[in-house]
């Protein structure tokens, strides 16, 4: 059954948030020069533009990291989990300024940080320390992948798949399509599942999710991306890429939702946070996007090789 009171809160949030998000996402103003000066660097001519949409994506992930730290702190109140913020922040800034650290080395640095955190803040019980390290490490890696992947949607190779937009204030229409597909996938799954869902998708992880709702969410994603692809794709890429992208978004968006539901069940919390009016926390609202963005990054990398 649809929760009417919660639905009203969601609609109020959407009315105010969507226009602001569209302005931020499609802005072509570059922060490259101002941020370089702020950090004491001389602006480099080869530095890729840093767009408001990328900054917004980065901030959203950092808020998600804050919520994950709060959940971790429920089990491990004495901690130094703040080093996860520092690592994600460093990796994000390095990416924006074209100083990306090789994946193997960056993960190794994180592993060292996690190990020292577990050694000095964990209890004497080795099992408790190992659980602490695994939960901390896996969560921070996931959020860092989401951060880099979401920011990468504003750059090549993803933007190579699309024709440059000629419509003012729609420079990143491809990113808008991706976000719309993810959120409509969530919405279709919610409404269809609430109204007609009978068979549970995964009762042990998220009892309110149904197979009928999941199928509706997948179809919504495929429809939105397939139709949009006709008009915004680069002609050198075939038409069937659109439906493939829609399937990937629909599947990964729902996988991300289930993953965060699993995390919340583990920590025994209803919502990851309460930052977003009517939606719970950042992880509750953007979990699908966090999981869908990396597969699009991977798809674009494969198609442009």
Tell me about this structure:
With 305 residues, the protein is mainly α. It folds into two domains: 169 residues, no CATH class; 122 residues. The chain is 69% helix and 3% strand. The chain is built from ten helices and two strands, in the order αααααααββααα. It has a two-stranded antiparallel ribbon with strand order 1-2. Strand 1 and strand 2 form a beta hairpin. Helix 4 runs antiparallel to helix 5, helix 4 packs parallel to helix 6 and helix 9 runs antiparallel to helix 10. The chain is globular. The mean pLDDT is 88.
Summary of the model, kept short:
The chain is an all-alpha fold. The protein contains ten helices and two strands. The chain folds into two domains: 1-29 and 166-305, no CATH class; 31-152.
The multimeric state of the shown protein is: single chain
Radius of gyration, taken over Cα atoms and rounded to an integer in Å: 20 Å
Domain module tally = 2
Number of H- or I-type helical stretches: 10
Q: What gap, in angstroms, lies between the N and C termini?
A: 47 Å
The 3D shape can be described as globular
Instruction: Specify the biggest β-sheet.
Output: 2 strands, antiparallel
How much strand? under 5%
Mean pLDDT: 88
Low-confidence regions: none
The tally of strands reads 2
What helical percentage do the residues reach?
55-70%
Helix/strand/pairing class, anyone?
mainly alpha
């Amino acid at each position: 059954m649809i929760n009417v009171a919660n639905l009203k809160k969601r609609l109020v949030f959407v009315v105010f948030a969507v226009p602001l998000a569209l302005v931020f996402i499609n802005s072509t103003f570059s922060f490259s020069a101002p941020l370089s000066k702020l950090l004491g660097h001389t602006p480099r001519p080869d530095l890729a533009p840093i767009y408001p949409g990328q900054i917004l994506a980065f901030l959203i992930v950092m808020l998600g990291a804050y919520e994950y730290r709060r959940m971790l702190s429920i089990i491990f109140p004495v901690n130094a989990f703040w080093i996860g913020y520092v690592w994600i922040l460093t990796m994000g800034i390095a990416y924006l300024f074209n100083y990306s650290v090789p994946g193997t080395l960056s993960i190794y640095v994180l592993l060292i940080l996690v190990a020292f955190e577990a050694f000095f803040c964990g209890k004497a019980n080795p099992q408790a320390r190992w659980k602490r390290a695994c939960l901390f490490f896996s969560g921070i890696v996931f959020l860092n992948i989401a951060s880099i992947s979401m920011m990468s949607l504003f750059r090549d190779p993803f933007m190579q798949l699309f024709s440059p937009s000629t419509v003012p204030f729609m420079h990143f229409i491809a990113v808008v399509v991706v976000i719309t597909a993810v959120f409509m996938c969530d919405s279709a799954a919610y409404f269809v599942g609430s109204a007609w869902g009978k068979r549970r998708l995964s009762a042990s992880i998220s009892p309110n999710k149904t197979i009928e709702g999941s199928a509706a969410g997948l179809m919504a994603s495929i429809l939105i991306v397939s139709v949009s692809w006709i008009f915004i794709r680069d002609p050198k890429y075939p038409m069937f890429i659109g439906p493939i992208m829609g399937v990937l978004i629909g599947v990964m968006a729902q996988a991300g939702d289930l993953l965060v539901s699993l995390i919340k069940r583990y920590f025994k919390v209803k919502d990851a946070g309460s930052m977003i009016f009517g939606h719970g926390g950042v992880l509750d609202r953007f979990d699908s996007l966090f999981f869908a963005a990396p597969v699009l990054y991977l798809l674009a990398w494969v198609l442009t090789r």
